[in-house]
Write a structure and sequence with these properties.
Layout lengths: L10 H10 L5 H12 L13 H11 L4 E9 L4 E8 L4 E9 L2 E5 L3 E3 L14 E4 L2 H17 L12 E6 L9 H12 L11 E5 L3 H10 L4 E5 L5 H7 L8 H15 L3 E7 L7 H11 L4 E7 L13 H13 L4 E3 L16 H7 L1
Parallel strand pairs: 4-7, 7-8, 8-9, 9-10, 10-11, 11-12
Antiparallel strand pairs: 1-2, 2-3, 3-4, 5-6
Helix pairs in contact: 1-2, 4-5, 6-8, 9-10
């Protein structure tokens, strides 16, 4: 377990912590304002704290949970992949993406991944451990600090900050459910990160019991399903976890989730040449999703050094998309931001896997 951090503490616990350091109560709110509003995580830079207090606040309340050890930019500086070293020496990655009107952070929920999806680099690494909720929140706070230091501004002149968080990095989020749920509390709390429910997305391979848990706990954020095939046989080939959670049962569970939340579901579908891009599969997708509250994202396959697959041709993707649209399915072809930095969908951990092959 990581050491106790300021982010762990409730408002009352913050007051107790600063008074134990010999500081007045109001310093707790002052530090929280620096941390959550100004994205300042280093007490040595909090100039309205007494200089004599900054060091002991840092030592007592701001242990280093994770540190960036490599940053790779691409897309003309719009995408930033960060390699982290955690307090126990393990490594993981997250990806920051800047759009004209928002900044989106793709965060990891586990160290590597146990799902072993055919197209995904991260699954080739296997599973090492769950991330704590503090480590997930740290990824967001670092990204906001990164943005602040580089003076990122929108076209209207206002400052960027992380607006959208997607659990689409390393790991299967629902297999780390309790830490995910706690991190969501921090993201949504008005006195902490104050993100909107519609700006947080959990992406899952379709772990049925934990989707049911989302329903039970009334976790009302956006849900993305890694579908990648419209039938059980092909899904088994692409995603080993599909054998444990059959597609028919998964879709019934998703229907219950939609009924409980009235949320549109985002379905992710990988476009692999000669594997998933055949016209008959597009027709099957229409049949599967017709009448459901759904948005389908087509994701061009991104290079995996451990397996010989090819990205679908642009013409085939457009033909596939046309069939879906003619069938009444709302569909988007996903931009492959981060590809140059090996930070696009399915590429996290690329350098480590490449070294192994």
């Amino acid at each position: 377990m990581p050491p106790t951090h300021f982010a762990d503490l409730s408002a009352e616990e913050r007051i107790d912590a600063v008074t134990k350091l010999g500081l007045p109560k109001f310093r707790a709110q002052q530090i929280a304002r620096h941390y959550y509003t100004r994205f300042e995580a280093d007490p040595l830079s909090m100039t309205d704290l007494p200089e004599s207090a900054r060091g002991k606040v840092k030592d007592a309340l701001f242990p280093e949970l994770m540190a960036p050890i490599r940053e790779i930019s691409c897309d003309d500086g719009q995408t930033q992949k960060t390699l982290w070293k955690l307090h126990d020496g393990t490594l993981l990655e997250s990806v920051l993406m800047r759009y004209p009107d928002r900044a989106t952070l793709c965060i990891s929920s586990q160290v590597w991944c146990a799902m072993k999806c055919l197209f995904c680099v991260t699954g080739k690494l296997g599973f090492k451990r769950d991330l704590t909720w503090e480590e997930m929140i740290s990824q967001i706070l670092f990204a906001n600090t990164y943005i602040k230091k580089r003076f990122w501004k929108k076209e209207d002149g206002t400052n960027y900050a992380i607006r959208n968080v997607v659990f689409m990095g390393m790991g299967e989020p629902l297999l780390n459910y309790e830490n995910i749920r706690k991190s969501l509390e921090i993201m949504l709390a008005q006195d902490r990160l104050s993100l909107g429910r519609r700006h947080i997305t959990i992406s899952t391979c379709g772990i049925i019991p934990w989707i049911e848990k989302l329903i039970e706990d009334k976790v009302d954020v956006k849900l993305a399903i890694s579908l990648h095939a419209p039938n059980q046989e092909l899904r088994n080939q692409i995603m080993p976890i599909a054998k444990a959670y059959p597609l028919e049962e998964l879709m019934k569970t998703i229907d219950r989730y939609v009924k409980a939340t009235d949320n549109r579901i985002f379905y992710e579908y990988i476009m692999i040449h000669g594997v998933t891009d055949k016209p008959e599969l597009a027709h099957q997708l229409v049949k599967l999703l017709k009448g459901r509250l759904a948005h389908l994202n087509l994701i061009p396959y991104n290079e995996n050094p451990a397996i010989d697959l090819k990205e679908s041709k642009k013409a085939d993707i457009q033909k596939f998309k046309q069939i879906l649209e003619e069938g009444g399915i709302t569909v988007t072809v996903r931009d492959s931001m981060g590809r140059e930095a090996k930070g696009a969908c399915g590429q996290l951990g690329y350098e480590k896997v490449k070294d192994q092959n």
